[in-house]
TrEMBL record:
Organism: Deferribacter desulfuricans (strain DSM 14783 / JCM 11476 / NBRC 101012 / SSM1)
Modified-residue entries (N6-(pyridoxal phosphate)lysine), positions: 110
One of the record's GO molecular function terms: threonine synthase activity
Protein name per its UniProtKB record: Threonine synthase
Record-linked SUPFAM superfamilies: Tryptophan synthase beta subunit-like PLP-dependent enzymes (SSF53686)
Enzyme class at the top of the EC tree: lyase
Required co-factors: pyridoxal 5'-phosphate
Superkingdom, taxonomy of origin: Bacteria
C-alpha cells in the first residue's frame, strides 16, 4: 500500500515514510492510495479472535513494508500495558453498548493508537539509525498518551503543547509529572486550536522539519487513524448483531475528527455500519456542518469535556478528500477558505452525501451532567463527560435510527473528577496510578501564543 497527500503534491510513499512524515510536506494529510475491502466471510472469520489478531488482520491490509512477524510483535507489545485481555471490552447496557477504550496506561482511547505508534517509531528509527523530535498539540488526552507511548524510547524527544488552564487537573498532572529529560510540556496562553495551529505552522516549514527530523503524534499521523480503525471491527464482532451481519450505529464523542474518521474508513472497508454519529459538546461546528452545511468557526468555549473543546478539526481535511471524490484542488480551495474566511461553503448535494454516512448531535454542559447522573442511577455505571455527550446523542437519536448503538467510551471518569462530582455528588473510584500523581514533582514551560517563540524554544532543546 502506498500513501498520498490530500492536496496532491506528495504521492506514492511507503507506510514507514508516511509515519515519519506525519503532516504531508505539501501541508495536506496522508491517506492510503486505495481502500482495502473486507468481505463478510473475512469478517466472520475474525469472530472470537483476540484484539491483537484482529489488529494484525486489519493493519496488514495497509502495511506492506513491515514483515508480518515484525508487525505481529509490534502489536503484541503495544497491548501488553492494557489492564484487560480484551484491550477494548464491549459492555451491553441494554439500550446501547459501550465500548470501553480507556484501559491503557493513561486511561483514554488515545492509548490504543499511541502505544502502537511509540513502538512503531522505535522500530523504524532503529532500522534507519535516525532520531526523531516529536511535536504535538493536545486538548488533554493525546499529550499524556503520547508521552507514555514514547517515554524511555531511544532517539526520541517530545514537545507537547497544551492550552494553559483548559485541560482537567488529572490530564495536566499526567503530562507534567513525567520528568524524563526527553519530555517537554509547554502550556500555551491560548486554546487547543492555537496549539494545533502552532504545530502545523512549524511542520509547514519543511526545511526546519527536515533539519530536525520532526515527527507527529497527533491524528495528523496516518498510523494513529489506522490503529483506531481496528476497534470498530473488534467492537462490532463482540455484538449480538454481528451473528446475522446486521448493521449497527456508532456514536463517537468528537473533537479533532480522528476517531470518527477511523470509523468512516471501517465503514468504507465494508463493516456493516448504518450511521456514524458525531457527538459534539457546545463547540459544535461539526454538528452544524452535518445538519446544515454550516462549517463556520466560532470562538472555543470551555466545557466539562475539555478534550473536545476544538473548532478546527484537523482530520476534517481527510474527509473532504472523499467528499470531493478525490479532487485535490477542491480540498486545497476549501482549506484556504477556512484559513482566510473562517468558513467552508457546502452545497445540498454534498450535504446529502454526508448524510449517507453521518448523523450528529450536540450536548450542552447541563445535559452532560444530567446524563452522567442518569446513567449512574439507571445502570450504576459512571461515564466520563465526553462519553456522556455520546450517550446523550444515542438517547436523542434512538427513535430516528432503528439500529442499536455502540457508544465509544473515550476516557475513564477519574480523569474528570470535578465534573463527575458535580453530576452525582461523589467522585468515581480513583485508580492507584492517578492517586500517585498528586504527590509527584512537576515540570512545565509556560509560553505565549506565538509560533516564533515556541519554535525557538524547541530549537534550543532539540537534537539534530
Ligand atoms: N482531543 C485531543 C486533541 C488532539 O487530537 P488528536 O487525535 O489529533 O491527537 C486531545 O485530547 O489531545
Amino acid at each position: 500500500m502506498k500513501y498520498k497527500s490530500t492536496r496532491g503534491d506528495v504521492n506514492s510513499i511507503t507506510f514507514k515514510d508516511a509515519v515519519l512524515m506525519g503532516l504531508a510536506d505539501d501541508g495536506g494529510l496522508l491517506i492510503p492510495e486505495e481502500l482495502p475491502q473486507i468481505s463478510n466471510e473475512e469478517l466472520m472469520s475474525l469472530k472470537d479472535k483476540s484484539y491483537q489478531d484482529v489488529a494484525f488482520y486489519i493493519m496488514n491490509k495497509y502495511i506492506d513494508d513491515i514483515k508480518e512477524d515484525v508487525l505481529k510483535k509490534l502489536i503484541d507489545k503495544s497491548y501488553k500495558n492494557f489492564d484487560t485481555d480484551k484491550v477494548v471490552p464491549l459492555i451491553d447496557l441494554d439500550d446501547f453498548y459501550l465500548l470501553e477504550l480507556f484501559h491503557g496506561p493513561t486511561l483514554a482511547f488515545k492509548d490504543v493508537a499511541l502505544q502502537f505508534l511509540g513502538n512503531l517509531f522505535e522500530y523504524i528509527l532503529s532500522e534507519r539509525k535516525q532520531n526523531l523530535n516529536i511535536i504535538g498539540a493536545t486538548s488533554g488526552d493525546t499529550g499524556s498518551a503520547a508521552i507514555y507511548g514514547v517515554r524511555g524510547k531511544k532517539g526520541v524527544k517530545i514537545f507537547i503543547l497544551h492550552p494553559k488552564g483548559r485541560v482537567s487537573k488529572i490530564q495536566e498532572l499526567q503530562m507534567t509529572t513525567v520528568l524524563d529529560k526527553n519530555v517537554f510540556n509547554i502550556a500555551v496562553e491560548g486554546t487547543f486550536d492555537d496549539c494545533q495551529f502552532i504545530v502545523k505552522e512549524i511542520f509547514s516549514d519543511v526545511d526546519f522539519k527536515k533539519k530536525y527530523n520532526l515527527g507527529s503524534i497527533n491524528s495528523i499521523n496516518w498510523a494513529r487513524v489506522l490503529s483506531q480503525i481496528v476497534y470498530y471491527f473488534y467492537a462490532y464482532l463482540q455484538t449480538k448483531e454481528s451473528d446475522n451481519l446486521d448493521k449497527i450505529n456508532f456514536i463517537v464523542p468528537t473533537g479533532n475528527f480522528g476517531n470518527v474518521l477511523a470509523g468512516f474508513y471501517a465503514k468504507k472497508m465494508g463493516l456493516p455500519v448504518n450511521k456514524l454519529v458525531i457527538a459534539t459538546n457546545e463547540n459544535n461546528i461539526l454538528h452544524r456542518f452535518v445538519q446544515k452545511g454550516d462549517y463556520s468557526i466560532k470562538g472555543v468555549v470551555k466545557t466539562y469535556s475539555p478534550s473536545m473543546d476544538i473548532q478546527i478539526a484537523s482530520n476534517f481535511e481527510r474527509y473532504l478528500y472523499y467528499l470531493y471524490d478525490g479532487d485535490h484542488q477542491k480540498v486545497k480551495g476549501s482549506m484556504a477558505a477556512l484559513k482566510n474566511d473562517k468558513f467552508i461553503k457546502f452545497n445540498d448535494l454534498e450535504i446529502e452525501k454526508v448524510h449517507q454516512d453521518f448523523d450528529s448531535t450536540t450536548t450542552t454542559n447541563e445535559e452532560t451532567l444530567n446524563i452522567i447522573k442518569t446513567v449512574y442511577e439507571r445502570n450504576n455505571y459512571i461515564v466520563d463527560p465526553h462519553t456522556a455527550c455520546g450517550v446523550d446523542g444515542a438517547l436523542k437519536l434512538k427513535d430516528k435510527l432503528d439500529e442499536k448503538f455502540i457508544c465509544l467510551a473515550t476516557a475513564h471518569p477519574a480523569k474528570f473528577l470535578d465534573a463527575v462530582k458535580v453530576a452525582i455528588g461523589k467522585e468515581p473510584e480513583i485508580p492507584e496510578r492517578i492517586k500517585e500523581l498528586f504527590n509527584k514533582d512537576k515540570r512545565v514551560y509556560e509560553m505565549p501564543n506565538d509560533v516564533n517563540a515556541i519554535k525557538s524554544f524547541i530549537e534550543q532543546n532539540i537534537d539534530e
